[in-house]
Specification:
With 293 residues, the protein is mainly alpha-helical. The chain is 35% helix and 8% strand. Among the domains are: 82 residues, Orthogonal Bundle (Arc Repressor Mutant, subunit A); 73 residues, no CATH class. It has a 3-stranded antiparallel beta sheet with strand order 1-2-3. A two-stranded antiparallel sheet has the order 4-5. α2 packs across α4, α5 crosses α7 and α7 runs parallel beside α9.
């Protein structure tokens, strides 16, 4: 018995041409090996669906999993209006080729889940393995993962005001005002460290010509009933209620010299000191130049 030669060419298959119909459509079919979609005749020849719905179902079944098929996306892809596409989607839902449900995510966003069926009545989502979770259907509005917002940084504390020209007298008066606040209210008892920290701020008020009694009333008035940190309250008031510096006093206009009576001609003239007027002084000077010494 002879062995078969594996390198021998295979016997060509005989093709028997199909009989050509006398009327109607003639099919010229080529075998697809890639980029094709299998569609059942129950959809392609469905008598209850419009051509738009059948074509839309074919387009949806040809898309990869996760593709967007919202009305806006489909309107941008095809020339049909939003109303016709929305109507076709409702036809496919009624016929069992689509299922759309609204779900609320943990973030609070409401999204639409869309499941496409190539055979009406099939399960909602086939599983590849019994132990694995079913793959998620396509979402028209995919929610982006939101990270937990970071807490806002605390605003930087405003520095306490400081005098432009520190003086020992101003510092002593400011120190006295702070230490005597407990006489107005016992809750304003400050530690030595708090008094040293707040003294420059009070000295700034005094440098801006704020009266000491006014500074004391501003710091001790209208205290909250649940006062817990008197030093923090005083620091806030010294910073937030700081008065502006007084504007510089306008220069005093120069007064004219007083009127004097001339000792020579007895006419009135202005001069700081009594004596001769300008004319008499000129005449006296001319005479003294003519008389030799």
């Amino acid at each position: 018995m002879a062995l078969k030669n594996p390198s021998a060419p295979a016997r060509p298959m005989s093709r028997v041409p199909a009989p050509t119909p006398s009327s109607g459509v003639i099919h010229v079919n080529s075998r697809h090996t890639s980029h094709f979609t299998v569609v059942g005749n129950h959809l392609a020849q469905h008598r209850g669906l419009s051509l738009v719905a059948i074509g839309l179902a074919l387009h949806i079944q040809s898309l990869p999993a996760g593709a967007r098929i919202g009305i806006k996306c489909l309107t941008a892809r095809f020339p049909e209006s939003e109303a016709r596409i929305a109507s076709a989607l409702r036809e496919l839902e009624t016929a069992g080729y689509l299922k759309r449900t609204r779900e609320r995510l943990p973030s609070g966003q409401v999204v639409t889940r869309t499941v496409s069926y190539n055979q009406p009545g099939a399960g909602p989502c086939p599983t590849a393995r019994p132990a694995q979770r079913a793959p998620r259907p396509e979402r028209e509005h995919e929610a982006k993962p939101t990270s937990k917002p970071k807490p806002a940084p605390k605003p930087a504390r405003t520095p306490l005001p400081a005098p432009r020209r520190p003086s020992p007298d101003g510092a002593r008066l400011a120190h006295r005002i702070l230490t005597e606040l407990r006489r107005d209210d016992p809750r304003l008892l400050l530690s030595e460290a708090d008094v040293a920290r707040l003294t420059p701020a009070v000295a700034t008020w005094l440098e801006r010509e704020a009266p000491p009694d006014a500074v004391r009333r501003t710091l001790a008035a209208d205290l909250p009933s649940d006062l817990r940190s008197p030093a923090a309250l005083l620091a806030h008031r010294l910073t937030a209620l700081l008065p502006p510096p007084l504007p510089a006093a306008p220069p005093t206009p120069a007064r004219p010299a007083p009127l004097q009576t001339c000792d020579g001609c007895e006419r009135a003239f202005r001069s700081p000191q009594p004596g001769l007027c300008g004319d008499c002084r000129s005449d006296a000077g001319a005479v003294s130049r003519r008389i030799p010494p």
